[in-house]
Amino acid sequence: MNGQVLFTVLVSAVGLERVAELAVSHRNAGWSLARGGVEFGRDHYPFMVVLHTGLLVGALVEVWVRRPDVVPVLAWAMLALVAASQVLRWWCIATLGRQWNTRVIVVPGAPRVTGGPYRRLSHPNYVAVVVEGLALPLVHSAWVTAVVFTVLNGFLLATRIRTENTALARLA
């Protein structure tokens, strides 16, 4: 099996993980809204969906069209970072429980979570997103996708973190 096929399997696995996240998010959104949850940042959510889909599609297109050479030491290091980002992401999901969501929905009066990875970082899930967004394409030297996603994601995260902080401050 060649490297492009293996990379496609990896990106497909990450895509399936994202589908699982969306199922959890949908369930949790219903739970939050049923308890008076208020959604913030609805305007930037479609851009986030397009950007994250673009990461997966862009990496595959770049690898199959540009056919970059794989640098083994880089590939293994980036694969380890992709795995670590998945572990961190699911640690965040488990720690937040029903309060975790891909949208910004805050339930008034719900306690702020300060355990798990939130003990040390305010937004550990975004650390996972940043690491994955850079590392996943670089597993197969798709540096164009890694750079474009990272720059656009930086702008998105600035908006997203500001939105979350405002929402938490208003409804805490």
TrEMBL record:
Key words of the record: Membrane, Methyltransferase, Transferase, Transmembrane, Transmembrane helix
Main localization of the protein described in the UniProt heading: membrane
Record's subcellular location: Membrane
One GO molecular-function entry: protein C-terminal S-isoprenylcysteine carboxyl O-methyltransferase activity
InterPro entries linked to this entry: ICMT_MeTrfase
Top-level taxon in the UniProt lineage: Bacteria
Membrane topology: Multi-pass membrane protein
Protein's GO biological process: methylation
Gene3D superfamilies associated with the record: 1.20.120.1630
Stretches that traverse the bilayer: 44-61, 73-91, 126-152
Gene Ontology CC entries for this record: membrane
Pfam families named in the record: ICMT
Descriptive protein name: Isoprenylcysteine carboxyl methyltransferase
Species, as recorded: Streptomyces viridosporus (strain ATCC 14672 / DSM 40746 / JCM 4963 / KCTC 9882 / NRRL B-12104 / FH 1290)
Lineage: Bacteria, Bacillati, Actinomycetota, Actinomycetes, Kitasatosporales
